[in-house]
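Researcher: Go.
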Amino acid sequence: KQWYQRRVAITAGIDRDVLLDFAAENFKDSNNIAVVGVGLDPEHVSNLADEYLWSLEGGSATAPSGKWTGHQESHIDGAGSGALAMCLVEGAAAGSHDALVLGVLRHLAGSGVASTKWGGSHSKLVAAAAPYTQNPFSTQCVNINNVNSGMFGIRVSAAGEEIGDVLKASVGVMAGLNTGVSDEALNAAKNKLKLEILSTYESNVGLRAATGLESIAAGSPSSTAQLLGAIDTITNDDVKEAAKRMNNSPPILVSYGNVEHMPLQRELQ
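Model: Structure:
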């Protein structure tokens, strides 16, 4: 309820002038805008862009570079007995082969709604964390791809007194991926990633978002056939190398809620 009230208070202060200022500041450079039309003639989409986006400043086809710094942490006290935490390292840019490899790695560790109360979820992350908690919890791997970089890691939620143990167990799973996995597990993860992509591209909303992001990041979008073919080429060596880079990347640790028992960043390494 308190979270909802805070969101209402924040959005109440957003008026027309605020939106216009935001648009003027962020929608002025063609570097960070892609016009995507689904089910429309390309010439019609081009005409719409010329009509409504004529004021855009010229940009470059090359996305600006990003630098990952890491070694940061923030723990914020919040109401309630539960806690949320994310431990993130440098990921990969959208449209890159590395982004697909990390997508496979995400499914190897455990993705989606990997939460449990009495059991029933068999991801590596949940199986590792379950012995350390007597309360409902969630732990899952996240792979966030941006234009010039990305974030990869784990997101957990648990009772405040158990969040540290759940997080430490989850980090241990990610470190264990350095040694690779079985061919059966790799093929299963690749098929899950294929299904995820097919599901995303099945809806107009997902197709527009994915096409727009790839267009900005890589210069042109990939078809589903191209993406599925690229996933087929991912090997166990690719996964091991990605896991090593992930575990050598300086992390960022953030938490919110009952964070009294949250470990420090150095205690996770």
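Model: Residues 113-121 have pLDDT under 50 and may be disordered.
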